[in-house]
Each structure stands twice: as structure tokens, then as C-alpha cells.
Write a structure and sequence with these properties.
Elements lengths: L1 H35 L4 E5 H7 L1 H29 L5 H48 L3 E5 L15 H12 L4
Parallel strand pairs: 1-2
Helix pairs in contact: 2-5, 3-4, 4-5
Length: 174
């Protein structure tokens, strides 16, 4: 009878140890699932990102060069209009060319800015997608000087990190 008591007691102790180990494993699995599924939400300043992106700077230089070339042509026509030696017939032709050139310059400015902005934002969005996947971010909020975000802890601002990333991607360094 006594041996039967020890056998039952040993089985109970064994079951208790097994239960403790199983509970420990469940706790570890549960904790790791919670940590793994924690949402990573960050934000970046849209204005700073756009303005400091190397592609933006490059497109701005290209646009300014084209603008200055066209403006130089207009300045030349304007100088002809101001000349005292120009005949009335030539003045009308130069004036028409000047007006046409001015309209084309304004149209160029509008089209260039909007078209290049769309291209730049498309590139930024592609890079942000890759950046988010690499850093396991589930949500990246774009905020212009935090105006559309009511509150954001500075520790989740990834603007500078993202800016370095997109500039390296653009330059082919990453």
C-alpha cells in the first residue's frame, strides 16, 4: 500500500512539473505573439521629405535652367520693344512674340511644377513602401509640420531616417 502511495505521489509530482512546463511554454508563446504583432506606427514630415529629397533638388535645377533660358529670350524681346530704333510694324511682331513667349513661360512653369511633383511623389511613395517593409512598419503617416496629426511623440518621427533612405535609393547607393 505504501509503495502504491509513492507511485501515485511520484505521478502527481511528474504531472505538476509537466503542467508548469506547459504553462511556461504557453506564456512564452503568448508573450512573443503579443510582441511580434505590436503595431509599429511612425510619421514623417512631408514638406521636409519632399524639399530635401535629392530628386526634388535635381528637378528644381533642371526647371530653373529651362526657365532662365526662356526668360532670357523674353528679356531679349523686351529689350527690342524698348528700343527707339524699332519700326511700328516690327514692334507689333515683336510684341506678339513677346506675349506668346510670356504665355508659354507661364504655362511651362505650371506644367513643369505639377508634372515633376507627381513624379517625385511617386518615387517617394515607392521608397517609403520599401522602407516600411524593411523596418516592419505597419503605418507611416505623412504630416506637414504635424498639422494633420493632433499628437505625435518625437520618438516615432522617422523623417530624417526616411530621408537618408530615399536619397540613398535615388542615388543607387542602397
Amino acid at each position: 500500500m505504501l509503495t502504491r502511495y509513492f507511485v501515485i505521489k511520484n505521478k502527481l509530482n511528474f504531472l505538476v512539473v509537466i503542467n508548469i512546463v506547459l504553462i511556461g511554454i504557453l506564456i512564452i508563446v503568448f508573450a512573443s505573439n503579443i510582441l511580434a504583432s505590436s503595431k509599429k506606427i511612425v510619421y514623417a514630415d512631408n514638406s521636409k521629405l519632399f524639399d530635401s529629397f535629392n530628386m526634388t533638388k535635381e528637378m528644381k535645377r533642371i526647371g530653373e535652367k529651362e526657365f532662365n533660358t526662356r526668360k532670357l529670350s523674353l528679356d531679349s524681346l523686351y529689350s527690342k520693344l524698348q528700343s527707339q530704333t524699332i519700326s511700328e510694324g516690327d514692334k507689333k511682331i515683336v510684341m506678339q512674340n513677346f506675349i506668346k513667349g510670356k504665355e508659354e513661360l507661364e504655362q511651362f512653369n505650371q506644367n513643369f511644377a505639377s508634372e515633376e511633383s507627381l513624379k517625385i511623389w511617386a518615387r517617394i511613395h515607392g521608397y517609403v513602401n520599401e522602407f516600411s517593409k524593411e523596418n516592419k512598419y505597419q503605418l507611416v503617416i505623412g504630416s506637414e509640420n504635424k498639422r494633420s496629426v493632433l499628437f505625435a511623440d518625437e520618438t516615432i518621427d522617422v523623417t530624417n531616417e526616411l530621408l537618408i533612405y530615399i536619397n540613398k535609393k535615388y542615388e543607387g547607393l542602397k
